[in-house]
Predict the 3D structure of the following.
Amino acid sequence: MSDTRDRRDEIQQFVERTEGKVYPRRVFMGMAAAIGLAPVAARLTPAMADAKELVIVNWGGDAVKGMQRSWVDPYLKKYPDRKAVIDGTGPSTSRIRMMVDSKKVAWDVMDRNLHTALEIGPEGMLEPIDYSIVNKSKVRPEHAVEWGIGNYIYAMVLTYNTKKWGGMVPQNWADVWDVKKFPGKRAFRREPDGQLEAALMADGVPYDKIYPIDMKRALDGLKKIKEHSIFYTVIADGQNAFRNGEVHLGLLLNTRAWPLKQDTKGLYDWTWNQGISWGACWMVPKGATGGRAIWDFINVALEPEGQAELLKTNGYGPINPEATKLLDAEWNKVNPGAPENYAKMLPGGIAWYAKNATKARQDLIDALAG
């Protein structure tokens, strides 16, 4: 019954999102295909443009405007005879599989993360990145793999209340696990990536020994502070838990910690020390029809100017280290890609998560439920 209700809700949301609006044909057909919906059968009536264009899909919200300004507009300026559009419906793995399996691929370039590229690339879901065209020297070696190349950096960082402990603030994950020195509720996300690494670092595991993750040791560590913690599912809920004073320290995305600091006038802050950095990436679905334009767009998106602009717009760190030179000292303080910040963090283990993410997620859920 819940599957039927979820399906009905998904279709209703699709109708509300599209009815009466104008969409390029491939965007609209891709949106419909992504949920397995026949537009004619569903009696959907958005206007559809016929022009062929490059379709870039991301996760919607402010990221649409940010990527339009930082990457799509410079691409169209360089190639004025081309067209490109952003579809913000989100390239979930299930939707990618549905498109590729049905051979009705409406997307050209997808915004995901590197461990997903390593997970579904070998399954035949993705096109290999054409590195004869795409210049991978613009990113760090760990941000270029066979089926994906980085587009921005984000990080999971230790976030804390600056007034709670009489001038003391936690400096590392061992401090977060010290409930006597730093009493109060902690916050962690109900996902393995970041949480497992924090638990191991708190237990004294050095960066070069984190992977492969010792699941028992990491989960035992999280169990030790479970009664002192909340575990959020939606990232915005974690940010709100800090803002509302429900929690005083814990793990939060840097793109949430930054506005949290601004909103609370410095009541909350974060440290890059022992953060866990991740590379988002461009992936291309198997059967994408954009041709050379796909690789040209990715190359433009790697240019330092647009990378620096995206940080200012959305808080995503430049994947191209050269962008740091275009940012002043104040902007680089909030830039996870700045060399001095990046060096303090653990690069997330994309190869390990590509093989173990599903089981690790279930193991974490089971451990928190026990």
Remarks:
- The chain has a mean pLDDT of 90.
- The CA atoms of residues 153 and 317 lie 5 Å apart.
- The two ends are 27 Å apart (CA to CA).
- The first strand starts at residue 22 and ends at 24.
